[in-house]
Every structure is written in structure tokens, then in C-alpha cells.
Amino acid sequence: MRTNRLSAANETEQIVRDYFDNRPGWRATKLDLGKETAADFRICRDGNCFLCEVKTIHSVRADAGYSSPYPPRGAGRRTGNTEFWFRTVFKEKLRLHLEESGVSHLPYVVRLDSDDVYVPTREEQQSFFEWLVAELQAGHRGGHVSHLWRPMMIGRSLLGFSAFYPIHTLQHEVDRAHRVQLTVWMKSGTAQETGLELSVHPYGTLNLNAITGNLEDGLRQLDQSAAREEDQRIARVIVLAFASGIGFHLLVLEDHIATLLKDNPRLCAIAVLSWLPEGSPPAEEDGLWSRLAFQGSAPRVPAFRVYHNPWLEGVNPLDPQAFADGLSTQVYPSRQ
User: Fold this and answer.
1) pLDDT 10s digits, 259-294
2) Which residues pair with 52 in a beta bridge?
3) Which of 212, 207, 204 is nearest to 72 (CA)?
4) What is the average pLDDT across 186-203?
5) b/e 129-162 (16+ beta carbons within 10 angstroms → b)
6) DSSP-based three-state secondary structure for 43
7) Which of 43-47, 73-77, 115-119 has the lowest mean pLDDT?
8) CB < 8 Å & 24+ apart, contacts of 247-255
9) Beta-carbon count within 10 A of 171 CB
């Protein structure tokens, strides 16, 4: 069983290849061998073929001020406050700082939540890191800590402490303040022996720029392969996979996909990879708990939400049976 967290683009490609090769009559042939610009696969059944390019979106989220609802073409090349930089720069520097600052042995869980994916400046990071280490050390020794901390209680039981830290204050009239929430609690039992545990959770909005940039790259690869086909009107599909899931942003994604399809009439469909429970769920009369247990324990299998292009021009339409597996969903955006 595969998980829904994709570690690399080639893993996503293998998922797509296995999906078609394991279905009767379908065969996926690898085209992109690194020698020339090409789509990932030509996928055929009974001589009816389409080209498929697979893109994994690693930087799924962005700061609200970074990703406009409908970014212009080429916008995916801008750097900014995105999930990729938040995790690879801010999170990793924080992790290393805690490991090297003499607090890594402390028996606590430190959770950091960010409503956006603002990446602090070097000076902001350094101030925050030094403050957090000092607070952990003081709290562990029973000394004085910042007034920002508030106890987390259930009844009379103390669970831990929580604080909102102002990681970026307003610098000018069009600036926006940013803060992170910290939650610290002590590990129980033998878990204390493993030392400090860091957990980081950024949120933010959907990174539409990353989606647009990946789609533009994919369409170029599809066009290059189509130019070498006997039938240059061959259908073209881009599969999108999101490394950390899209959360509650499905409607935002669908709105953006409709715009991308309208702007790219040579693209037959965009198929979004998802993971669904394998097998049939319990009957309604079995109750809510049985259905929840099934959702939580059943192995996951790949399925797709396929958005067909109603503005298609100059290319063959995608065979509707391409993703007709009993689990995947076919979506036809309105031309209005």
C-alpha cells in the first residue's frame, strides 16, 4: 500500500504507470528518457492513445499575498513565501538550531503552527530561535518565562503551554504582521528518553503559481511529443499530484483548473491524483462508527478527479474510458 505523501516525482510517475498497466487492455509506454524534451507516457488501448505528463506539486501552499486568484502566465517562476521555502529554510534552520543549542535532550514536544507560510528574515529567525531556546531552558529549570505563554488546561489538569509569537511586526503601511503559535507539552513515560520533538504545521492558501508553472512546463512537453506522433492531434493529459494534500481548498483548485483549461485549448484534461479506501464501505445501517473505522483502516488505492476541457481546439478529445475505473470521477466544467 502506498501512502498519500509523495516523496519524489518519479514515485508519482510509477503510480500512474502502474495504474494503467494493471487495467485490462491499457499500456503505458515511457517516452521521457532524458534524451529530449518529451511527455512522460504514451498510454494506449486498442490503438486509441493519449499523451500523459505527470507533475508533482511539492510547494502546495503559499502566503495569501503571494498567490493571486488567477496568476499570469510564467508567475510560477517567482520565489516568495511558499511551503517549499517555509519547510526547507525556516523549519530546517529551526530544527538544526534546537539540536545544536543544548535543548535537544529536553523531554518536550514543541509544535509550531503558522496560519500562512511567511518565511522570516535572517534577523527575525535568529531572534525567534534564541528566544525559544531561552524559554525552553528557563521553563525546564522552573525559572521565569515570557508573559506570552498561557496554560492549556482540561479541568484542573495542566496539559502544556501555548504562546503566539510575533515573528514579523509591521514595517510600513502596506506591510502585514505575521505570528506563529507555539505549543509545548512534556512527553510521557519512556518517550521522554528520545529528547525534544519538533512538529511544524504551515497552512496558508493554495499555491496557484506553482500549479500554473508546472502546467505550462507539462504542456510544452506534451506538445514536443505530439509533434513526433503520426497523429499530431493526439489527446494530451496532465496528471497533478499534491505532495501534502490540498486540505479544504478543493473549490479554489477547481476554479483555477477551469481557468487553466480555458487558457490552454490544446490540453484535453487535468487529472488530480487522490487516494480512496479500497473496497466497499459498511452499509448505512451499520452506523457511523463502522463507516469511520472503514475510512481509517482500509488500504488506499489511487483514483483521479478528471477535469475535461470543454474549450478543446485542434486536438482529439480524451477517451472517456481512460479513467473509468469505478472510483475516479469525471468533471466537465461549464463553458459559462
Assistant:
1) 999 999 999 999 999 887 777 777 777 777 776 776
2) 41, 237
3) 212
4) 87
5) beebbebbeebeeeeebeeebeeeeeeeeeebbb
6) strand
7) 73-77
8) 247/203, 249/205, 249/206, 252/69, 252/205, 252/206, 252/208, 253/206, 253/211, 254/307, 254/331, 254/333, 255/69
9) 9
Cell output for 16 = 500512474
The amino acid occupying position 235 is A
Identify residue 69 by its one-letter amino acid code: P
Does pTM top 0.85 for this prediction? Answer: no
Report the C-alpha gap between 193 and 239 in whole angstroms: 44
C-alpha cell at 254: 477547481
- Residue spans of alpha helices (H) in the chain: 9-21, 83-85, 92-100, 122-141, 208-226, 250-263, 288-297
Q: What is the mean pLDDT of residues 211-232?
A: 93
Residue 128 bridge partners (DSSP): none
DSSP string, 263-278: H-TT--EEEEEEEEES
Tally of CB atoms within 10 A around 33: 7
